[in-house]
Amino acid sequence: MAKRKLNRRQAWRVEKIQEERRERARKRDAQAEALLGAGELGPEQEGLVTAHFGTQIEVEGHDGERSRCHLRANLESLVTGDRVVWCAGDPTGVVVARQPRASELLRPDPHGDMKTVAANIDQIVIVIAPLPEPHANLVDRYLVAAEAVGIEPLILLNKSDLLQDERAQQIDTLLAPYPELGYRVLRASCKQDQGLESLHLELTGKVSVFVGQSGVGKSSLVNELLPGTDARVGALSEQRGKGTHTTTTAELFHMPRGGSLIDSPGIREFGLWHMARPDVEQGFREFRPLLGHCKFRDCQHEQEPGCALQQALESGEVSQRRMDSFRHIAATLAAD
Ligand code: GDP
Ligand code: ZN
To answer: Which residue from 171, 189, 220 has its CB within 8 A of the most atoms of ligand 1, so it is best to mutate?
Structure first.
């Protein structure tokens, strides 16, 4: 992109906007520091970030109560799922520190920079269904994205009530490689109340997110897991009654049967963006021990002599299905 020269008036406006931003940040910090300085806050305690609204966040304390908090000056940015140290206040508390993160869910922002959207997630539930039919390599794409952030995936086939004849066979073929690779696969039906017990068990004691194509039944599943809280994401602002925010921020919910969900429209779309080729190679977990063992350092794993992946394919260590899938995903990357 050619560098645009700002005229004096534009430059003045840019500077003005930046000054306003700095001023807002100063006010924010001053508010937090004033609260801390006034000695009217409770003692430091551990908490969990359950939502994020512009400059404030919502923190859950040990008693399960949630309160709005300011962030102390110079605190690293916080996202839903972060564990923090905070002090309760009336009406607003202050977060004073962030605990180290066990994991980060990343997605690109509009400039293509990777941004953390949630923290400390234990598993990514990849939801697929017989209908809408999963497009080619969809499951592998999700798996690659999950591997890239180092969060354990769980493959969940919903709408198992729709499995008949050829469709049942197609799905069996589709899912066949995964248990051998060490991925968990569950089958469920929201409609016929099947498999939900096993799903509950897999979610217990963990923080999970649901991802998957539109129409596979994520809302139905989330409603099932969080009864009485209706269509989670769409209803976020109404549910709070005051319409104080209509953002699509990620929110954390505890399930009555144990375990927590972090949900937002952005999180549901996880995984379907451009990935770098090394991430794709690493994302096929059975490739990992082979990478770096090809004869050529820039091996594309196509027809090159001495390709370790090609050899593993011939010996049956790597399945044709997964190899095809890798090549397909790599080709879409090249085309991007
Ligand atoms: P989302 O877009 O992934 O959130 O999917 P929704 O939860 O909105 O579900 C899409 C459609 O699939 C709705 O019409 C649901 O009623 C339907 N649906 C959800 N779960 C099941 C299921 O287990 N079996 C069948 N047959 N339909 C389902
Ligand atoms: Zn190779």
So the answer is: 220
Closest Cα to atom 24 of ligand 1:
159
Closest residue by Cα to atom 19, ligand 1, is: 217
Residue for token digits 């799905």?
171
Cα(43)–Cα(93) distance, rounded to whole angstroms?
Answer: 11
Angle at 72 (CA atoms; ends 78, 260), nearest 5 degrees:
30
Q: What percent of the chain has pLDDT over 90?
A: 63
Evaluate: CB of 163 within 6 angstroms of ligand 1. Answer: no
Q: What are 193's two structure tokens?
A: 């109340």
Contact 51, 80 (CB under 8 A): yes
Question: Is 17 buried (19+), middle (13-18) or exposed (0-12) by CB count in 10 A?
Answer: exposed
Tens of pLDDT, residue by residue over 65-79, are 999 999 988 888 899
- Cis amide leading into 130 (omega within 30): no
Residue with tokens 């198992």, as numbered in its chain:
160
pLDDT in tens, 279-326: 999 999 999 999 999 999 999 999 999 999 999 999 999 999 999 999
- Do residues 127 and 195 touch, judged by C-beta distance below 8 A? no
3-class DSSP assignment, residue 8: helix
Regarding the beta carbon of 191 and ligand 1, being less than 6 Å apart is answered yes
Mutate to test the pocket of ligand 1, among 131, 158, 189, 190 (most ligand atoms within 8 A of CB): 190
Q: Please give the distance of CA 19 from its chain centroid, rounded to a whole number.
A: 34
Nearest to 323 by CA among 116, 140, 171, 193: 140
68 alpha carbon – ligand 2 mean position (Å): 53
- List the residue whose alpha carbon is closest to atom 22 of ligand 1: 159
Ligand located closest to 221 CA: 1
For residue 186, list its beta bridge partners.
156
**The residue to which tokens 């003692």 are assigned:** 43
